[in-house]
Design brief:
The structure is a single chain. Helices cover 28% and strands 29% of the residues. The chain is an alpha+beta fold and 165 residues long. A hairpin with a 5-residue loop joins strand 2 (47-55) and strand 3. Residues 26-150 form the YbaK/aminoacyl-tRNA synthetase-associated domain.
Length: 165
């Protein structure tokens, strides 16, 4: 498991912004459905964080961290339209880990890398309580969607679609 620099940076950011957050310790888990059950909340209140590779043109690739409610999926066509891109797909694990500064299953709905653009679905920032792994498999955090939007400052755009049945 990597060191906890990203976790420490998150806590420092939230403390300096006077955010009312709650830490939740639990068994190590990185899947949205399982960790939501451990934390005791609906999957729809979780932040699902996906790193995407966006090819705008032949020479320009952008990396986007899309944040959607845990019971939904990222709408790749919506992201493609949003960026007027030729292609949108999931980033490879190595790039995602480097840019998100966290291992899969612990990616924060925050970006600490200027190369990683943050886009959150409006349903995420509207949540009274938002839950996510805090850059660790064994610890999560909850805060209000309003505080999340104020501190993370994501671009708020519709990027979620219903999960397949």
């Amino acid at each position: 498991m990597p060191d906890h620099d990203t976790y420490d940076r998150l806590i420092s950011l939230l403390d300096s912004a006077s955010v009312d957050y709650k830490l939740i310790d639990h068994e190590p888990e990185g899947t949205t459905e399982a960790v939501s059950a451990l934390r005791g909340h609906a999957v729809s209140e979780a932040a699902k964080c996906i790193v995407l590779r966006v090819k705008v043109d032949r020479r320009t690739t952008r990396h986007v961290l899309a944040v959607v409610p845990g019971d939904r999926r990222v709408d790749l066509d919506a992201v493609k339209t949003l960026y007027a891109a030729r292609y949108v797909g999931f980033s490879d694990a190595e790039t995602a880990e480097r840019l998100a500064r966290a291992v899969p299953g612990t990616v924060l709905p925050f970006s600490f890398d200027p190369e990683l653009e943050l886009v959150a679905d409006p349903a995420v920032v509207a949540l009274p309580r938002l839950y996510f792994n805090a850059a660790r498999l064994d610890r999560s955090l909850s805060l209000s969607g309003t505080d999340y939007e104020r501190v993370a400052q994501p671009r708020v755009e519709r990027v979620a679609s219903p999960a397949p049945a």
